[in-house]
């Protein structure tokens, strides 16, 4: 009896130690922040990061094709043909970093000596300056934390660009989350995340309700933010795919979903568009010109030009030429069987930009369609695709997974752990670093906000993680003692009864059962993988749409194909080198010279 009780105590103690050593996923909001404290409405949307000592706050976005993280300092390097002055540049960058004010920054001669990645992807489609980014950037080591949380704080190599390498529309600081991401590596090596996995949902910026924060998760994904079956595919960064992020899919149909229930394809018959998923791009879709042309034929909308605002390259429609705007949705059907429906509130969006004084402004008499015409570059699905889709990238399995997104502020994180050890992989409920516990769609009544900063979503006080950990440990200890007492009582009583009924039975005939964790759960090998079940190509085909004849060719996706589909997109044109007069990334034309009002000064906040 004493022997068994000792074994039970040891098993419970071992389980407690293992649970304490097993990291959980980390979730942080993608939200809107004020950038310039002198300008109250200087808003930008992104992932908040603190950097340096003392801490400085900036906004970043996820870059799946970069291994290193690149942070702009006073040399902001905005494109003067798109960004009209330095205040606009400062706000659109999401603030800047002052390395000279940080006591934790250490300069190194190059990325190799700083411990950074020595290679970046430079295949066709990447930003034009990436080829020179490693050799031209100032390399160093600095303290960085996503969300300003101790749980995500690491000391890691960073690059400070000294070359205007990115397009003027991508703009925010670049958090490199590529296959050899220095940030994911640092988190994993510090045992702060269970795996080099990250997941991404942009959130909802517009609609009848309050905006809904997005989220980025490290080490797993958010089960509350997904709907239905998933599609999983291998990451492939090779030049032959034409996709520099490793995430290539094929758009097999684009379908307008009218308010009366009718559906209409705007894709030509027997056609398909290979696209590269690029979350940092500023639009929903960059595609061949027929997409915009057929959209306008079907909806009767009249374009008034292209945007030079925050959603650079979008199609602009003013209310003078368009007394009524298209009020339906758009479904993007992929050849793998997954269909993502973009609601109207995220399809025709307000025309927004940063004014010369740094203010975020909206032009009320026009709307924008975040779809641009291709030049010589590959087609892309950008950040607004992730208002309705959810992405998980698993660098340890070399795969990416897509789901239809559930726009909810509630969070339920699932651990992805390939170690096959004793770490628990049960779902854990979390506030996601900033989100409240209210669930709901931004487009539905209530329009739950993803931010709890104003206390509108949850009136309870936030729980300090350290206090929660201590309280959990105490509760676990009490529960363990109670369990030991109950088991001891049960075993003593059972043995007495057994001795009375069968006095000749030896205690040695008793066999020990399997040890269970304190919560009664016995974790089996492979249990984690069964929770999200990536399944290549097993989704059902899209529904059979009706195709009214409104200026486009009719196309039935279920009809027998008599010829091979025509694929749109040019993948192998070599981009121009980055010189004084670069080429536009999307249409190949020369950029105009800098405007006269571009100043030489740089905003500085202290």
TrEMBL record:
Chief place of localization: membrane
UniProt entry keywords in alphabetical sequence: Membrane, Signal, Transmembrane, Transmembrane helix
Subcellular location(s) of the protein: Membrane
InterPro entries named in the record: Immunoregulatory_rcpt-like, PEPTIDASE_A1, Peptidase_aspartic_dom_sf
Gene3D superfamilies for the chain: Acid Proteases
GO CC annotations on file: cell periphery; membrane
Coiled coil: none
Topology in membrane: Single-pass membrane protein
Residues in the signal sequence: 1-19
The Peptidase A1 domain, residue ranges: 45-403
GO biological process per UniProt: regulation of cell wall organization or biogenesis
UniProt key word Mitochondrion: no
Segments of this protein annotated with the region Disordered: 425-460, 585-606
Record carries keyword Transmembrane helix: yes
PANTHER family the UniProt entry points to: CHITIN-BINDING TYPE-1 DOMAIN-CONTAINING PROTEIN, PAIRED IMMUNOGLOBULIN-LIKE TYPE 2 RECEPTOR
Protein name: Peptidase A1 domain-containing protein
Organism of provenance: Neurospora crassa (strain ATCC 24698 / 74-OR23-1A / CBS 708.71 / DSM 1257 / FGSC 987)
